[in-house]
Design brief:
61% of the residues lie in helices and 0% in strands. It has 97 residues and is an all-alpha fold.
Length: 97
């Protein structure tokens, strides 16, 4: 394996697309975990243990977001309806005493 200079690595890193750079993969692991996990396994040269740890953490984060959003929506659905339902008993209009 040949060693590359810091300058050469900087030039090589500059020519790579944005989604291949480590910083963006880490950001995607937080903001869009499924995409970040896929890029982690396909693009990075990290150790398999590191990839596994980051993937599990991102998957748990994604699950927490989904569960949190669905729980939040369910609590809003259980709020009382401000408009009372109109029940038609079939007897037509009646006058009240």
């Amino acid at each position: 394996m040949t060693r590359t200079s810091r300058r050469q690595r900087h030039i090589d890193n500059k020519n790579r697309p944005w989604f291949v750079k480590q910083r963006w993969i880490l950001i995607l692991l937080v903001l869009l975990p499924p995409i970040g996990i896929a890029l982690t396994w396909m693009v990075t040269r990290w150790a398999p243990t590191m990839k596994l740890v980051l993937s599990v953490a991102a998957a748990l984060w994604c699950a927490a977001l989904v569960i949190g959003l669905s729980t939040n929506l369910e609590t809003h659905d259980k709020s009382p309806d401000p408009v009372a339902p109109i029940i038609d008993d079939g007897r037509g209009p009646q006058s009240s005493p």
